[in-house]
Amino acid sequence: MLVAFSVAPSGGQDASVGEAVAEAVRIVRESGLPNETTSMFTTIEGEWDEVMDVVKRATEAVAAVSPRTSLVLKADIRPGHTGQLKAKVDRINSILGE
Questions:
Q1: Under 8 Å CB-to-CB from 47, ≥6 apart: which residues?
Q2: Beta carbons within 8 Å of 34's beta carbon, 6+ residues apart
Q3: Alpha helices, DSSP H only, in the chain?
Q4: Closest by alpha carbon to 71, among 83, 63, 80?
Q5: DSSP assignment, residue 63?
Q6: Which pairing describes strands 42-45 and 69-76: parallel, antiparallel, or unpaired?
Q7: Assigned CATH topology for domain 2-96
Q8: Residue 66 CB partners (closer than 8 Å, separation 6+)
Q9: Which residues touch 38 (CB under 8 Å, ≥6 apart)?
Q10: Rounded to two decimals, what is the model's pTM?
Q11: Ranges of the chain with pLDDT below 50
């Protein structure tokens, strides 16, 4: 499964958005799961339980520095398929002739 998510502190004066998001991204990268971070989302690939555990830990890290936390999540659940983080983009690039 692929999960694209965005987590950020919301509310409160003291929370540094950049530092909180960086901590969430660190948790994703240290998970060992295939991942990619863009300006809007971090996408991770793995089995349901392992992906959701990483999302939970990343969200908890942000929540630790903010009285309120925003989480946006989108999942592509496709049992039996792996390597889709790159393969989906490769298919589009192939169609485009790139």
A1: 1
A2: 44, 45, 46, 83, 85, 86
A3: 17-30, 48-63, 84-96
A4: 63
A5: H
A6: unpaired
A7: Alpha-Beta Plaits (3.30.70)
A8: 9, 10, 11, 12, 15, 20
A9: none
A10: 0.88
A11: none
